[in-house]
Design brief:
alpha+beta; 4 helices; four-stranded antiparallel beta sheet; about 150 residues; single chain; Alpha-Beta Plaits
Length: about 150
């Protein structure tokens, strides 16, 4: 099988991007937000919660994510209303989880911002940004070794 040229691969990527659902950078504020994920158990819960909410909503595609101690970043594709339902479900279940552990952290400031991604270049840059977010906060969390994000898979 002949390998596609770079130009042909780019045309395929552009066509795939254009045919897909809208793309978004979903993020929550890291400033003035309480510590939400304090240990490995919390981070594992957050990753599993992403998967459960993805399954329950069923129409949101998660392309990249990074779980930080007090906020999250995701690159997602789907209908805006479905993405909002996805985040609302994630937030409700996170609130329940924190309460079940007797933690009083407020998630009042854990609110979603949703930035549209309009072109393939911005999609690529946003994926890189999300995957580097842990490293920017803590250089020991490289995109290749950080277990709380998708960086090592790119």
């Amino acid at each position: 099988m002949k390998r596609a040229s770079y130009a042909e691969s780019e045309r395929i990527c552009e066509a795939t991007f254009a045919k897909g659902c809208p793309w978004w950078h979903l993020y929550t504020p890291g400033i003035d937000t309480s510590l939400l994920f304090a240990d490995a158990e919390d981070f594992r819960y957050a990753i599993n919660l992403l998967a459960r909410c993805h399954k329950d909503i069923g129409t949101v595609i998660i392309v990249a994510f990074e779980i930080m101690s007090n906020h999250i970043h995701l690159v997602v594709s789907g209908n805006e209303d479905d993405i909002r339902r996805f985040f609302d479900l994630f937030r409700r279940r996170l609130k329940w989880y924190l309460a079940s552990k007797g933690r009083k952290e407020s998630i009042r400031r854990f609110t979603m911002s949703l930035k549209p991604i309009k072109d393939l270049r911005t999609l690529r840059n946003t994926i890189v940004y999300v995957n580097r977010n842990g490293y920017v906060a803590d250089p020991d969390r490289t995109p290749y070794s950080d277990p709380w994000g998708t960086g090592r898979f790119y």
